[in-house]
Design brief:
about 150 residues, alpha+beta, Alpha-Beta Plaits, 2 domains, 4-stranded antiparallel sheet, 5 helices, 4 strands, about 40% helix, globular
Length: about 150
Amino acid sequence: MAASKTLQSKLWWHAIPAAAKLPTQQSHCIAFTPRAMATISAQKSEWLVILPDQKGAWKRRLELRPQHLDDLSKYPSDFWLWGGPFLQEPPKSNEPLKALGSSLLAWGRSKDEVLAELRKDIYTTNEVWDWEKVQIFPFKSTLRKPM
């Protein structure tokens, strides 16, 4: 019976795949691979965001604009790639802009991350942007020129 147990103990070792028999030091390399892949999926991307204004929000937008612009510095330094109002008609000199909402290109790891940042904005907390109509799309710039 002792010989039978010795034979069984030797056979189980051969049934284990070779990769599972690697020394502990090499096993750490195998464990690292999934983490490297997770890092790749967490890379930042561009996000095109369209934030329409609520009906009747024009006056609030104008009142809050100076604070909104000052608060842009509170975002992560690489968050804003460009942004501004989208308009009802092209701007006319000596006339106020007829903004319908805001559009922007943000840099973030996910749609949820970008939207979470924008939910902190004074235009959100003071009900300028209509969150029922917000649209966000993954985006890839092909061309960008300096202003």
